[in-house]
């Protein structure tokens, strides 16, 4: 225990500072590839530089920081209770999508740093260890699979399991990890033990516009969508657009177009608003005005808050793609590149966070998360909860992504109160 005078949780909450949150987020936003917005891809040297900033801040505050084989950075503040080794944790990720924004993930890490600072500087006594985590490689944009660091923490990721993951340039995830000094061969050592954890709460920007349109400053997540992702390759015959009659074509792009429309149709006709299907990536070869497209590769992302429905929808889609390919006489190859189940977050944590918001007059709403988050993985290890703060215009994964620092500070205060309540629970 420190010799500083304790002024209780109110003293710590009073230290949460919007300007400091802004400074941290601005500092991390500088670590980017050239071009619009922020580009700091999973398992890139830039992502590791952002982790270095996190580590240095935490070391300055006197915390012990470790980096595991999967690249997660974990800072620990010991608790005062004898024999209480099960920790209370918070954190999020520091990587981004290509040309993304500065808040997705980073907001939750900035909140973690600010909570750590206010706890240290106020001398707030807490029973259990508090751990502050910057997860690695959360975004699925580079390797298809999302939440790679937290999957390792939850024990789901294995060296064999990640072997099939590679980026657009043909670099495998294992090669990318090794090139930044991580240990893909020892990824299993990053797994957390349930007995070391008491609970975990992640703060994240909403990435949608439910909070903004309802003028609610805080969202408390009760369920996180799962996703099934596949890459589909259609191969027809490339040939001259003038010389090849319509009835003799094997046009891979028109077959793909039918598949894309089918995705929209299936999601729209679904009985539930929880099903969302997107084709977000489509490459056409040879991509020439005067050549019939001979080869098309596209991605399909199926999201749902119901795991059975998610997989049934994905299976249904793939079998109907086969029919379309057959009818149009093109070859089809399908590869599953990601599959994550939805996570239902425990009511105990939803209620704990809600009680803190209510007690301090902060309006909130309980809501599902359409996006995947590290918490989805962490909920396999320990009780996990999520706090959303509003995204202006509902925009995310774009350079215009924005959250007001006042709202982020309010969210961080609720986070600190909730972590403190969890510490005592
Ligand atoms: Zn995120």
TrEMBL record:
Binds 2 Zn(2+) ions per subunit. It comes from the Bacteria. One of its GO terms (molecular function) is hydrolase activity, acting on carbon-nitrogen (but not peptide) bonds, in linear amidines. It holds the Pfam family Peptidase_M20. Gene3D superfamilies: 3.30.70.360, Zn peptidases. Keywords: Hydrolase, Metal-binding, Zinc. The keyword Aminoacyl-tRNA synthetase does not apply. Zn(2+) 2 binds at residues 104, 139, 397. CDD domains: M20_bAS. Its cofactor is Zn(2+). Coiled coil: none annotated. Zn(2+) 1 binds at residues 93, 104, 204. PANTHER family: ALLANTOATE AMIDOHYDROLASE, ALLANTOATE DEIMINASE-RELATED. Belongs to the peptidase M20 family. This is Allantoate deiminase/N-carbamoyl-L-amino-acid hydrolase. It comes from Mycetocola miduiensis.
């Amino acid at each position: 225990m420190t010799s500083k005078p304790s002024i209780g949780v109110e003293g710590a909450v009073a230290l949460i500072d919007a300007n400091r949150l802004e400074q941290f987020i601005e500092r991390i936003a500088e670590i980017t590839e050239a071009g619009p917005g922020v580009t700091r891809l999973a398992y890139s040297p830039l992502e590791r530089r952002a982790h270095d900033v996190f580590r240095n801040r935490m070391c300055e505050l006197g915390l012990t920081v470790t980096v595991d084989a999967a690249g997660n950075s974990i800072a620990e503040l010991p608790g005062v209770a004898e024999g209480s080794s099960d920790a209370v944790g918070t954190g999020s990720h520091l990587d981004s999508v290509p040309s993304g924004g500065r808040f997705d993930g980073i907001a939750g890490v900035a909140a973690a740093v600010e909570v750590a600072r206010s706890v240290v500087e106020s001398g707030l006594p807490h029973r259990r260890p508090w751990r502050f985590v910057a997860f690695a490689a959360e975004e699925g944009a580079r390797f298809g699979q999302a939440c790679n660091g937290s999957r390792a923490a939850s024990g789901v990721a294995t060296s064999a399991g990640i072997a099939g993951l590679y980026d657009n340039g043909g670099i495998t995830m294992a090669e990318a990890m090794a090139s930044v000094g991580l240990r893909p061969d020892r990824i299993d050592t990053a797994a957390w033990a349930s007995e070391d954890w008491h609970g975990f709460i992640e703060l994240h920007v909403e990435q949608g516009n439910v909070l903004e349109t309802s003028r609610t400053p805080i969202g408390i997540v009760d369920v996180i969508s799962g996703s099934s992702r596949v890459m589909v390759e259609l191969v027809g015959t490339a040939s001259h657009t003038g010389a090849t009659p319509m009835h003799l074509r094997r046009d891979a792009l028109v077959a793909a177009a039918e598949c894309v429309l089918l995705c929209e149709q299936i999601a729209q006709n679904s009985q539930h608003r929880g099903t969302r299907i997107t084709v977000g990536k489509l490459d056409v070869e040879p991509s020439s005005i005067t050549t019939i497209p001979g080869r098309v590769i596209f991605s399909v992302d199926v999201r749902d808050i119901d795991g059975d429905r998610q997989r049934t929808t994905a299976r249904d889609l793939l079998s109907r793609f086969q029919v379309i390919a057959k009818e149009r006489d093109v070859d089809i190859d399908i590869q599953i590149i990601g599959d994550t189940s939805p996570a239902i977050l425990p009511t105990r944590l939803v209620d704990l966070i809600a009680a803190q918001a209510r007690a301090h007059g902060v309006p909130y709403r309980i809501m599902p998360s359409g996006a995947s988050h590290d918490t989805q993985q962490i909920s396999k290890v320990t009780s996990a909860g999520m706090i959303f703060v509003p995204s202006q215009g509902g925009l995310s994964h774009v350079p215009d992504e924005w959250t007001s620092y006042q709202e982020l500070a309010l969210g961080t205060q609720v986070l600190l109160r909730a972590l403190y309540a969890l510490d005592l629970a």
